[in-house]
Amino acid sequence: AQTVTQSQPEMSVQEAETVTLSCTYDTSESDYYLFWYKQPPSRQMILVIRQEAYKQQNATENRFSVNFQKAAKSFSLKISDSQLGDAAMYFCAYRSSWMNNAGNMLTFGGGTRLMVKP
Amino acid sequence: DVKVTQSSRYLVKRTGEKVFLECVQDMDHENMFWYRQDPGLGLRLIYFSYDVKMKEKGDIPEGYSVSREKKERFSLILESASTNQTSMYLCASSFLGILEQYFGPGTRLTVT
């Protein structure tokens, strides 16, 4: 079974600064997907960014980028120019590449609470 | 915009009660999911459904059952609520074969 670990329960960053959230995972599969989800205080979870394991290039979405190290099974999220609206719980998640029912399942890490200081 | 709604934001129930949590999505998604969210544990999958009347167990199905009689609606049932089922429950949905899951706002359930 896959496991996802987020070792930082809480992080804080000054507004306009850069912060990196860590995520490691364990899997025996060679092809899979990784995600970062954001859960603001209002609780509706939204997808921030995703990475396909077969792609060597790191995914980027505006101020959000990832550092995907497949050999190390590491998938960190970098937030540049942090804004007050970035304050939220962030969850790292893993999904198998299998296109069957089991492949629909996401495995989540424990989450990191990010605080942004004005 | 995809909309996933849950019947209640907050719910307080007594031990032994039967509890129904309902989720509705308006995007004709095949897949629907129920997760439980606890501090430090992240989200854990309870059950998911890939079609009407079809279901698969997730990581923690014990003490829960589900029902999907219509494509847009997925219910989570606690047959006899216990205090260790006090938690945040999140529903999600997605198209078959599409990676992104869309989440509802969550139901904070307290069992006393």
How would you summarize the topology of this molecule?
The complex is a heterodimer of chains A (118) and B (112).
Chain A (H helix, E strand, L loop, with lengths): L2 E3 L4 E5 L4 E3 L2 E3 L5 E8 L6 E7 L7 E2 L2 E6 L4 E6 L8 E9 L9 E3 L3 E6 L1
Parallel strand pairs in A: 2-12
Antiparallel strand pairs in A: 1-4, 3-9, 5-6, 5-10, 7-8, 8-9, 10-11, 10-12
Chain B lengths: L3 E3 L3 E4 L5 E7 L5 E8 L3 E10 L2 E4 L7 E6 L2 E6 L8 E8 L7 E2 L3 E5 L1
Parallel strand pairs in B: 2-11
Antiparallel strand pairs in B: 1-3, 3-8, 4-5, 4-9, 5-6, 7-8, 9-10, 9-11
Brief summary:
With 118 residues, chain A is mainly β. Chain A contains no helices and twelve strands.
Q: Could you name the key traits of this structure?
A:
heterodimer, A: 118 residues, mainly beta, 6-stranded mixed β-sheet, 4-stranded antiparallel β-sheet, 12 strands, 0% helix, B: mainly beta, 7-stranded mixed β-sheet
Describe this entry's structure for a reader.
The complex is a heterodimer of chains A (118) and B (112). Chain A is mainly beta and 118 residues long. Chain A has no helices and 12 strands. In chain A, strand 8 and strand 9 (74-79) form a beta hairpin. The mean pLDDT of chain A is 92. Chain B has 112 residues and is mainly beta. Chain B has no helices and 11 strands. Chain B has strands at 4-6, 10-13, 19-25, 31-38, 42-51, 54-57, 65-70, 73-78, 87-94, 102-103, 107-111. In chain B, strands 2, 4, 5, 6, 9, 10 and 11 form a 7-stranded mixed beta sheet that branches. A 4-stranded antiparallel beta sheet of chain B has the order 1-3-8-7, with no helix packed on it. Chain B is globular. The interface between A and B is medium-sized, with 27 and 26 residues.
